[in-house]
Specification:
The complex is a heterodimer of chains A (112) and B (364). Chain A contains five helices and four strands. By secondary structure, chain A is of the alpha+beta class. In chain A, strand 2 and strand 3 form a beta hairpin. Chain A is rod-shaped. Chain B has 364 residues and is α+β, with helices and mostly antiparallel strands. Classes of the chains: A alpha+beta (112), B alpha+beta (364).
Chain lengths: 112, 364
């Protein structure tokens, strides 16, 4: 107890730094699942909603590009013949496929 | 004499039944003339559309049905009369109407535990179907879209961890409060209802059930309902149809669940839909939940969220300004599709202006 107190007194800034690192590590551990899948949100959202905008709602491609636009950059690759949409964002890629007039679009596997 | 009276009454009933207009097969039209009230409605609903910043009111469709006929219809942006528009959370109330048909077929009771039809809910044996319908499962769900993406249960359900099996993802949530006691808006609760429907009607009938039960009898031909990776309907979010087809569900509800001479939804079911839920925890001031529909009255008798609309007004509401409003006392069904990306659109304002526009026609 006395020794630790002495360390804090001797190295106040290092001690503070260690506490901050421990808190950040704890937060990352606590949110590890959410953080791991978080980057796929942009590409998954973009692929799925663009696919539905184009092939369920039958809107023009130019309109659908602005419809799915987010505050983070993404790319869209539309395969109009097969009604398949691949999108990238935050270094991840997602694909959505139109499956029929009643079924609409669905994100393809794998699930993150 | 009594026979004469009976014949007279019978004639009266036949006449009143004949006077009721239905969209069978198509909606008939009786457009309201141009007047100041209509101009005021259009000024509010269709301002110059901001396609760059996406700010302000951005109406895609506005359709007003009065006494079973189209009296006003206008589209904005790229949306047209034949566009199957995304309804977002209006899907929840559409799902409720599908479930109403299943209830009429005796497939479940409101007090049944969810686990009877959806086994993964054996982890939550005390949650009943009526609790899901009140968004009161008590599960620890986070319903945020754009503002808290890391913590949002609904974003994870639709786009990342949950999308393989959305109902199971919901079932894996912890408990925040006792089932049936506290309102907590949850797309997860609605998704579990869509999974429970599979247990009610069986795997074989499930994929077509919304069509055979509800859409076909109503003459809805434009519907799409997207599914998760294991084939469960995304009951919370992903139903699509034209404005004219969605209005059919509004007319069904406006007329107490009856479609022409068929009581498609049991009267008791519609009463359940339209009874305010009494939550032990405070409900946000702009939300008055019933049984998977939104009401304009509350359980404690306080006025509802739309002061300029009659208290019997109810609605199905969705993200980005989607709305299906029903005002039985005024004979009105209003569909509004939109792409509002900020919070500037106001339900009360639209209802007030639409009521004025229709009343103006009555010779006011």
């Amino acid at each position: 107890m006395i020794a630790r107190k002495a360390f804090i007194l001797r190295r106040p800034f290092s001690s503070f730094g260690i506490v901050v690192v421990l808190i950040v590590a704890g937060l990352i551990w606590n949110w590890r699942v959410q953080l791991q899948v978080f980057p796929s949100i942009i590409s998954a959202y973009t692929a799925k909603e663009y696919c539905s905008c184009r092939f369920v709602m039958n809107n023009p491609a130019e309109y659908c590009r602005s419809y799915v636009k987010q505050w983070l950059p993404s790319t869209i690759n539309e395969d109009a013949l097969n009604k398949r949409v691949t999108a990238t964002g935050l270094g991840r890629e997602s694909t959505a496929q139109w499956e029929g007039p009643r079924q609409g679009c669905r994100l393809s596997s794998p699930v993150p | 004499m009594s026979r004469l009276l009976f014949a007279f009454l019978l004639l009266l009933i036949i006449c009143s039944a004949a006077a009721e207009t239905w969209p069978a097969p198509d909606w008939s039209e009786r457009p309201i003339g141009r007047n100041e009230a209509v101009t005021a409605l259009e000024t509010y609903a269709f301002p110059p559309r901001d396609e760059v910043e996406r700010k302000g009111v951005r109406t895609d469709a506005l359709l007003i049905i009065h006494d079973g006929e189209v009296v006003y219809e206008r589209y904005g942006g790229v949306t047209r009369a034949d566009t199957s528009h995304l309804t977002w959370s209006i899907s929840k109330s559409i799902l409720a109407s599908v479930l109403g048909v299943a209830l009429g077929e005796g497939r479940f009771k409101l007090e049944d535990p969810v686990s009877r039809f959806y086994p993964p809910f054996s982890a939550h044996p005390d949650i009943k179907l009526q609790d899901l319908l009140h968004w009161a499962s008590g599960l620890d769900w986070q319903e945020d879209y754009e503002y808290a993406p890391l913590n949002s249960s609904v974003v994870a359900m639709l786009y990342t961890r949950g999308r393989g099996d959305m109902a199971r993802f919901t079932a894996e949530h912890g408990v925040a409060s006792a089932p049936g006691t506290s309102y907590r808006y949850s797309s997860g609760d609605s998704t579990v209802l869509a999974a429970a429907l599979k247990g009610m009607v069986g795997e074989r009938s499930y994929a077509d059930y919304p069509w055979t039960a509800l859409f076909d009898p109503l003459g809805i031909t434009s519907a799409t309902w997207e599914r998760d990776a294991i084939g469960t309907f995304v009951g919370s979010s992903y139903a699509y149809m034209t404005a004219r087809d969605l209005a059919r569900i509004g007319l069904l509800m406006a007329r107490g669940g009856r479609w022409q001479d068929r009581q498609l939804l049991p009267k008791a079911w519609v009463d359940f839909n339209l009874t305010p839920f009494k939550s032990l925890t405070p409900t946000p001031i702009d939300e008055a939940p019933g049984g998977h529909w939104w009401l304009n009255k509350t359980a404690d008798g306080k006025p509802g969220p739309w002061p300029d609309a009659p208290p019997d007004t109810f609605a199905a509401l969705g993200h980005w300004g989607q709305a299906l409003y029903v005002i039985p006392s005024a004979g009105l069904v209003i569909v509004r599709y939109a792409d509002d990306r900020d919070g500037s659109y106001d339900h009360n304002q639209l209802l007030k202006l639409a009521l004025n526009a229709v009343a103006g026609e009555g010779g006011k």
